[in-house]
Specification:
Layout lengths: L3 H16 L4 E3 L13 E12 L5 E6 L18 E19 L6 H11 L3 H9 L2 E6 L3 E2 L2 E3 L2 E24 L1 H8 L2
Parallel strand pairs: 1-2
Antiparallel strand pairs: 2-4, 3-4, 4-8, 5-8, 6-8, 7-8
Helix pairs in contact: 1-2
């Protein structure tokens, strides 16, 4: 399972550092105003999370958590098995920068983030949360007038790869599991 509670704040911080913006939020969170001295803010949105490859792999592994293998009813020796699903996801994260200051176009902040995502320090930060940077799509200027005020707006999508592991909440008897698979 993708751990969004870890990934979201870490990506916000990474994008803020990479772009030079004071504030980068997720679009589904409460929106704050950019600080007066910067007049620009960034936002992130998950555009897609797809399975990479045909499907996830299902396997069984010995459950080393919470138990003495010798305390099992049949005399011991074999640890209980836990079903595990492993897979890879490709995430597309949209970065949107909105600038209220015509002297600081949004594309400047977005291009900075797009370039700095390729640095080793960014790769290390992403690795610590279980992600890897895969590339970026085109940077687009989508300037607009909002509330009768000109806004410089730039958008690009960055692609990341995430490994997912989901463990079943119950264990399986290894002898019973062997019998089932040999039928």
């Amino acid at each position: 399972m993708i751990d969004w509670t870890t990934i979201e704040p870490a990506l916000s911080e990474l994008y803020a550092t990479a772009s030079g913006l004071y504030l980068v939020e997720w679009q589904n969170n409460a929106q704050q105003m950019a600080p007066a001295e910067q007049q620009a803010k960034g936002s992130l949105l998950v555009v897609a999370a797809t399975v990479a490859g045909l499907q996830d792999e299902t396997a069984y592994q010995e459950d080393t958590e919470g138990g003495d293998p010798w305390g099992v009813p049949w005399g011991g020796g074999a640890l209980p098995l836990r079903e595990v699903v492993r897979g890879v996801r490709t995430l597309s994260i949209r970065f949107r920068v909105e600038s209220y200051d015509q002297n600081s176009p949004a594309r400047r902040f977005a291009e900075s983030a797009r370039t700095r995502l390729q640095l080793t320090e960014s790769a290390d930060a992403l690795s610590s949360i279980g992600l890897a940077y895969s590339g970026s799509l085109a940077l687009n200027d989508v300037d607009d007038t909002i509330d009768e005020r000109y806004r410089s707006i730039a958008i690009f999508d960055a692609l990341f790869i995430a490994q997912v592991i989901e463990r079943a909440s119950v264990t399986t008897d290894p002898i019973e599991r062997t019998s089932i698979t040999r039928r």
